[in-house]
Amino acid sequence: MKKLIFTLSLVVLPLFSCSSSDNDEQTTNPTTVNNKINPPAWIIGKWTSYLGDTAYQSYTFSNGDIVMSMGGYSQSYKYIADNGGYSQTSSDTEFTFILANGGVSQIFKFKKVTATKLNFDNGNSITEFIKE
Q1: How far apart are CA 17 and CA 75, in angstroms?
Q2: Residue 47 sits in which domain range?
């Protein structure tokens, strides 16, 4: 679990190095929209992992973006995907995407268990997510 948090922090940190003018352009200039992220229909929506009765982490998948939330913070992967390295593969039961940013690549693997459950494999452990 510590490795997952460390890995996720590597994705989050480079985004805080943007200047405010970079952020303004990202949100106001429609020509910067590339929509490289295209998850399969079965994964669209919000998926949450729980520790006991408490929500621990969630992923929200939509056409054009993936947002990870944990500990009160949210991270959109759209900017990284549109401006860095991004690739994805999908099937009726699996969705894998790779983000490459600042020389660091991260692999995110999701596997459909049922219509309301999926597993996230970070390479070291598997975490179950429930569809909200």
Answers
A1: 14
A2: 2-28+36-131
